[in-house]
């Protein structure tokens, strides 16, 4: 009884609201209300994971296998709003919830034994210290709750790069080509790796990370983003 009282008090003082519409959440809702969850722009990339426009984007950049995205990115749309909240509004729990939702879709679609490791794209230590968490790692935590593959921080960012926003596809690849490396304790030899990031635009960052993993003996590397678009 006391625990319920404390919870009710905390909900009163610190109300839990939907990250998209702002409506008060029920106890069984996490970061998104059922209405907003039901209207997310969920993609069907997992149905054609090795033959889709995202895979076409990375051809010639890396020898990756499957390429998928949970949400379709659109400027000003729900996916952009969610990514903004996740990255800039101190909502790591939103990344976990999105990962759980997509992890369940992947599990039900037959991917439950497809990977040995779930590896998030790393942030530079300065940026992670400023934000307090790595949004891609939070997404990986959610995936890990639905998929048996273990989270593995095998990559580190060894250079602080300038923003990619205004760069072309080839400029983005040049900008991140030597940015990532394995961590000293990492062992990816023979591993089937699911590499995850928050957003995929040209795929340059994901491919740079994938190339490091493949060069160090990873058996396969597949790519997943929270959102991807043109």
Automatic annotation (TrEMBL):
Superkingdom of this protein's organism: Bacteria
Phosphoribosyltransferase domain location: 136-228
InterPro entries in UniProt: ComF/GntX_DNA_util-trans (IPR051910), PRTase-like (IPR029057), PRTase_dom (IPR000836)
Pfam families recorded: Pribosyltran (PF00156)
SUPFAM superfamilies: PRTase-like
Similarity comment text for this entry: Belongs to the ComF/GntX family.
Name recorded for this polypeptide: ComF family protein
């Amino acid at each position: 009884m006391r625990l319920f009282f404390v919870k009710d008090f905390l909900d009163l003082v610190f109300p839990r609201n939907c990250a998209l519409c702002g409506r008060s959440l029920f106890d069984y809702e996490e970061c998104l209300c059922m209405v907003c969850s039901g209207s997310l722009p969920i993609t069907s990339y997992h149905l054609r994971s090795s033959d889709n426009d995202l895979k076409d984007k990375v051809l010639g950049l890396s020898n990756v296998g499957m390429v998928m995205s949970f949400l379709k990115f659109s400027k000003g749309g729900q996916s952009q709003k969610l990514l903004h909240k996740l990255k800039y509004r101190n909502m790591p729990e939103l990344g976990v919830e999105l990962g759980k939702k997509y992890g369940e879709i992947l599990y039900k679609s037959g991917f439950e034994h497809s990977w040995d490791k779930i590896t998030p794209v790393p942030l530079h230590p300065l940026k992670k210290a400023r934000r307090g968490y790595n949004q891609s790692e939070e997404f990986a935590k959610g995936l890990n709750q639905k998929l048996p593959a273990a989270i593995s921080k095998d990559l580190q960012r060894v250079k602080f790069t300038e923003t990619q926003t205004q760069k072309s596809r080839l400029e983005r690849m040049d900008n991140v080509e030597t940015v990532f490396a394995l961590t000293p304790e990492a062992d990816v030899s023979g591993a089937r790796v699911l590499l995850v990031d928050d957003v995929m635009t040209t795929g340059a960052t994901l491919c740079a990370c994938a190339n490091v993993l493949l060069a160090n003996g990873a058996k396969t590397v597949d790519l997943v983003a929270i959102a991807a678009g043109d």
